[in-house]
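Hi V.,

You were right to ask for the full record rather than a summary. Here it is.
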Amino acid sequence: MKADAVATRMSVLTRALPMRILVVDDDELELTLMADRLTASGFEVERAANGEAALQLLSRQWMPLVITDWQMPVMDGIQLTQELRARGVDDTYVIMLTMRETGMDYERGYHAGVDDYLTKKLPDAELFARIHAGFNTLALRRSLQETRAELMQAHRVDPDSGAASIQETLARLQSEIRRAQRYGRMLSVLSVGVHLNTDAEGAKRDAVPTLDETPAAALQVSNTALAAVVKVLQGVVRTHVDWVGRIATPPGTVAFAVVLPEAATTDGPAIKERVRAALKKVPDGRYGGQSLTFDYGLAGLERGSNSEGKAIDSAELIDVAEQCRHCSGHAGPEQLGAVQRSVSIGVTIACRHGYAVVSHCNFKANTPAS
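Predicted structure:
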């Protein structure tokens, strides 16, 4: 971020801060004189005679800046600052204004959490300069917090599609797995592959890609098309329960995980058909100006899947769903490999019944070209 942009942002944030100051001093004359000077300078001023009264006021109203004396009855300025920091109040700038000025006093003040330590001998011009510096510091802190939040949000969202990012998908799915295993709940993951329709006639694709395929045409799937697909997926799942995330795939391919808490793998075929029907509603299968086709995989945890206490990794669960997606659904090496993989990590797939492979997978039964 450029320096002028930072300065502009800080200026806006400073103006947005309420110009309120709490003055804490047991000397009524000192308190009145300080409050009058600050009020004359355009600040909104509150007063407290000791630290305890200040805490009661601060519990009712946020004050950006506190100017406090050290030596006061009931609760002194050091105790007030320590209590504020102990309560997690770090968005209030504390200036200690006192007659104590030894090196040890400064050290105690800063150790307690004071932001600035001044003596009452300081000229008014210097005091007000330090007050304005305090508000600028608060603006900078707020700017840094907002920037940090923006960066965290950027890492959570896939910029191409608007779904959860690959890293966020793995982390969030891991939390879903832990919850499902801890409470013996069901959890399913539907993987949805997205492919550019390469048929010149716009007809639907019949072939299901293998794990080793990297169709060059898939490189041309636009971000607009991906965002449109995610919007459809988010619209067909349960709000605030199910969610959609991007998953890692070989270069040139795209896939998403639709995470379905409390859904059994036996529900997979019906859920897949609901998703498939929603994706087919787009005229000519065109998303963001591109004609797309889709394929599907499914893996999940059944109720009580934590009976052996075996932890399941989110990447492993997605890997099984992806193996299912690349399987034709007919008995053969692909289907057997998917079943063996699912058994080895304790994950269920739709074509596994008592660890046996049926001749044709119900999950794939209605998956001609989408």
